[in-house]
Write a structure and sequence with these properties.
This protein is of the alpha/beta class. It is about 45% helix and about 15% strand. The structure holds pyridoxal-5'-phosphate.
Length: about 400
């Protein structure tokens, strides 16, 4: 086989569909977030405003977080020095797990090198090690959960997205004695919609199923202490496992589960994706601890973010730019065509200094291509006006449909 020719032809197919991904070469600038220097502009490096960051609250440049990271480097050096099992467990890891268990009102927590790995390893281990386990997985679940379940080789049933009745029907049809895990997210990343957590817990409990909740897009952002949507709704104690990331609202890197001591110990002891990989650098753990502690007591960032989201939605409405209604901080502006979506984002970057990554298949279904906007507390009125003016111009130029006010 001509391997190179095969790979080139596959890449060519992606280009033809408008689904080939090009990364913007950015240099984030501490102190002026959400501004960055873009190194991949046609005319040479220039300033851009970032509208698609998952550093939702700007914690990635919080002075206390940075100071904690620098201090930890000075005290502990660069890397962890090994896997947790062999020489890699640092006091900052232990402290971070205590902080996370407290955040979610659980007895224990276990950290991983990313949120992806935490889902993959935890679901993979639970579903494969619990005999005859069946996983009920929401149709909108993230790739990391899907891959973890697939890797477990356990039986899987996909229930309709956020549909309590479909979940109930499927659970009712299973043997009452069969072990079951119901896996879902709180805030869905692409549509920004929120799961009926209480109803799912009711149904799961009635059928003796464990519940596994991915709060990646909610931790730090919802609840009085940033514990997520389950905290806001007083439901944390009803979930068997709460999974989260340290890389989005907390602004650093890493993932975790919070659960009972026995469950965390079980995953710690059996998960390949935990055991055989080098632990997070101590400085990363130290930064995460400071970020979590800050957001446990400070509401200012959350309130400012919600206000910015409202403001952006109002201004989009003013120009009839269609965006998906939801109750979260994610503002999906619908384009519905992969080639136009890519063209619009290229134009915004080159002509308006606005960086929004196009969201195309397979991240979202074909025909629902979009711009996924994530307003932060640090986007100014001026940033918002610049964005909606540019979108307004593009909507006319590309003959895209307007929302009826
Ligand atoms: C981003 C994401 C993850 C993975 O988290 P990382 O820390 O980025 O690896 C898991 N679940 C969902 C829903 C996500 O969007």
């Amino acid at each position: 086989m001509n391997y190179e020719a095969f790979m080139s032809s596959k890449l060519e197919e992606l280009r033809d569909e408008g689904n080939y991904r090009v990364f913007a070469d950015l240099e984030r600038r501490r102190g002026s977030f959400p501004k960055a220097t873009c190194h991949s502009l046609e005319g040479g490096p220039g300033d851009v405003t970032v509208w698609c960051s998952n550093d939702y609250l700007g914690m990635g440049q919080n002075p206390a977080v940075l100071a904690a990271m620098k201090d930890a480097i000075d005290r502990c050096g660069a890397g962890a020095g090994g896997t947790r099992n062999i020489s890699g467990t640092n006091h900052f890891h232990v402290e971070l797990e205590t902080e996370l268990a407290d955040l979610h009102g659980k007895d224990s927590a276990l950290i991983f090198t990313s949120g992806y790995v935490s889902n993959w390893a935890s679901l993979g281990t639970l579903a494969s090690r619990i005999p005859n386990c069946v996983v009920l997985s929401d149709a909108g679940n993230h790739a990391s959960m899907i891959e973890g379940i697939r890797h477990s080789r356990a039986e899987k049933q996909v229930f309709k997205h956020n549909d309590t009745e479909d979940l109930n029907r499927r659970l009712s049809a299973l043997d009452p004695g069969q072990p079951k895990i119901v896996a879902f997210e709180s805030v869905y990343s692409m549509d920004g919609d929120i799961a009926p957590i209480k109803e799912f817990c009711d149904v799961a409990e009635a059928h003796g199923a464990m519940t596994y909740l991915d709060e990646v897009h909610a931790v730090g952002l919802y609840g009085p202490r940033g514990g997520g949507v389950a905290e806001r709704e007083g439901l944390m104690d009803r979930l068997t496992v709460i999974e989260g990331t340290l890389g989005k609202a907390f602004g650093v890197l890493g993932g975790y589960i919070a659960a009972s001591t026995t469950l965390c110990d079980f995953v710690r002891s059996f998960a390949s994706g935990f055991i055989f990989t080098t632990a997070l650098p101590p400085a990363v753990a130290a930064g995460a601890i400071t970020s979590i502690r800050h957001l446990k007591t400070s509401d200012a960032e959350r309130l400012a973010q919600h206000e910015r989201v409202r403001r952006l939605r109002e201004r989009l409405d003013h120009f009839g730019i269609p965006h998906m209604r939801n109750e979260s901080h994610i503002v999906p502006v619908m384009v519905g065509d992969p080639v136009k979506c890519k063209w619009i984002t290229d134009w915004l970057l080159e002509n308006a200094g606005i960086y929004v990554q196009p969201i195309n298949y397979p991240t979202v279904p074909r025909g629902t291509e979009r711009l996924r906007l994530t307003p932060s507390p640090l986007h100014t009125d001026g940033d918002i006006e610049q964005l909606v003016d540019a979108l307004n111009q593009l909507w006319s130029q590309c003959a895209l449909s307007r929302a009826v006010a």
